[in-house]
Amino acid sequence: MRTQRRIGVLLVVSLMFLAVLSACGSPAKEAPPSGDAGPSSAAGGSAPAAEAKAKIGFSISTLNNPFFVSLKEGAEKAAQAAGVELVVVDAKDDPAKQVSDLEDLIQQKVDLIILNPTDGDAVVTAVQSANAAGIPVITVDRRANGGDVVAHVASDNFKGGALAAEFIKQALNGQGKVVELQGIPGTSAARDRGEGFHDALAAAPGIEIVASQPADFDRAKGLQVMENILQSHPNIDAVFAHNDEMALGALEALEAAGKKVIVVGFDATEDARKAVEAGRLAATIAQRPEEMGKIAVETAVKVLHGETVDKNIPVPLDLVTKS
Amino acid sequence: MKAFILERLRRSGPLLGLIVLSVALALTTPHFLTVNNILNVLRQVSINALIALGMTFVILTGGIDLSVGSMLALSGALAAGMIHGGVPAALAVALALFAGAAMGAANGVLVARGRLAPFIVTLATMTVYRGLTLVYTDGRPITGLGDAFGVIGRGYLFDLPLPVLWLGLGFAGSYLLLNSTVFGRHVYAVGGNEEAALHSGVATDRIKIWVYTISGLTAAAGGIILTSRLNSAQPTAGMGYELDAIAAVVLGGTSLSGGRGTLGGTLVGALIIGVLNNGLNLLNVSSFYQQVVKGAVILLAVLLDRSKAGR
């Protein structure tokens, strides 16, 4: 009996250990935009030597994902074009490794650090160390939730929403009923994509948004909310979903109801691209990681030359339709 | 006499709430009270209601099962994976149901034989099963599951959506199990007073293992229906479903401390949540207010139940 109990405890402890591990491992995708304090273009104390080749450190969250590989390639090309040296370090999605990566870069006395955080909170101390060493930091894609960051380069969700609106406007010839499926209320992606969409449609009086409902970026909820909306609005012409998951869920509801409706998603996931090629999904919005890397390095070069840069630098997006 | 009326009221409290909510919606939107929409709500409710039926057994024994959403995801992913691997749909469904039951049984063994708090056990296995789902799917959805499997969630029997039929069968089965068998009486006994049940010869450990097994089975059934409806197994499917299921059970008047409650109440509780979701969409209520309304309705319903119970 006693050993039985011990074995039980052992089992559960190991289970809980696993649970804790996996809970730690899940990265916070939607890093909340923190109140970025500090001056926007303080390029630190270190003016780069005019003649010596400038050295930029690039700490990337992972290279085990095509998105970030493209990000790195874009940065490398831009560095070559600008004639600066780029040192790339791969954190392999491990926040602890990233912190030591950043410390290494500080030791190497790079002139500037481009940081693509694995985790917005875990990198804060490293950003502060860089600040203390007078090395300016630029973040890419995800934000750091503290420390002084000169600029943040990321996809322009607002423009993406507008891009979707333009596509729908053209496809409907400026005339029709549209449904919007919103992401998790309060997230920056849902807010920006929605605002961009609404702003762009404000100039199209023929297009009416008959329903704007949250489906929390989730495919099952996308299906369910679309089914409900179809009850009160059986005749709609287009759907814009703040991400592809909801768009694909809505598509199932629409197809089950035998309706042919223009559905536009966001993110260009693998599933969504397939659905676009199959002619089911009308379009999706794709991020441009290579462009993001290029803009990050170009911004870095400007900072090194003492130019003022914007605190938030948007990267344009692409509309993906059937080729 | 007064006590009798109060007792009747308590029993019909959840149903009263559902009727009030439905009447309010029928008056505010013409799209609510249509045959189409009612079938739509029933179909949407079926998954949560099935999970909540299993959850009712667990809560009646004084336990809780937080791992239902993860068991749903893993069972759905296993079914989809097997179908992708060429296993016939019927066999894949049977094996996925078995896998769900096995996961539930593991919960039950840890709770009963390990003498551990159900909250902790199922909190841990919730993460373990979710992790296994991510490992199995490699974090990607499994799509393209064929027509035979699609019928389960998208098919009709005459005009009745099949998920509603599965819910009906699940309800009938669990109702008989809880109300017409020795096992059912023992479930109430364990939740009412475990010590007394043990002394009067109830194999409390075995009862506990079985209720978690039932919960795993109904979660797997929900997972199969959801996967079929979406024509895709999502690695993140079912996140937060445990809260909806628990809410349905509690809204239905089942006591969280066990021993008191009915399956009919749970069904009504699930319907309240489903009707509420449907109504908010039909009325196009702003996303920020939706959460306030949902929480407020749950609080109100539970408060009503509590005041009527007089404890």
From TrEMBL, chain A:
One of the record's GO molecular function terms: carbohydrate binding
Periplasmic binding protein domain boundaries: 56-307
PROSITE patterns: PROKAR_LIPOPROTEIN
Signal peptide from the UniProt entry: 1-25
Acetylation found in the keyword field: no
Source organism, top-level taxon: Bacteria
Cellular location(s): Cell envelope
Pfam families for this protein: Peripla_BP_4
Example of a GO cellular component annotation carried by this entry: cell envelope
Keywords from the UniProt entry: Signal
Family per similarity comment: Belongs to the bacterial solute-binding protein 2 family.
PANTHER family assigned to the protein according to its UniProt record, in alphabetical order: D-ALLOSE-BINDING PERIPLASMIC PROTEIN-RELATED
Protein name: D-ribose ABC transporter substrate-binding protein
Organism: Hydrogenibacillus schlegelii
Lineage, top ranks: Bacteria, Bacillati, Bacillota, Bacilli, Bacillales
TrEMBL record, chain B:
Keywords tagged on the record: Cell membrane, Membrane, Transmembrane, Transmembrane helix
Molecular function in Gene Ontology: transmembrane transporter activity
InterPro entries, A to Z: ABC_transp_permease
Main location: membrane
Membrane-spanning segments: 50-74, 86-110, 116-136, 156-178, 209-227, 248-276
Topology of the protein relative to the lipid bilayer: Multi-pass membrane protein
UniProt keyword Transmembrane helix, yes or no: yes
GO CC term (a single one): plasma membrane
Subcellular locations according to the entry: Cell membrane
This protein's record includes keyword Nucleotide-binding: no
Domain of life of the native organism: Bacteria
Protein name (record): Ribose ABC transporter permease
Organism: Hydrogenibacillus schlegelii (Bacillus schlegelii)
Gene behind this protein: rbsC
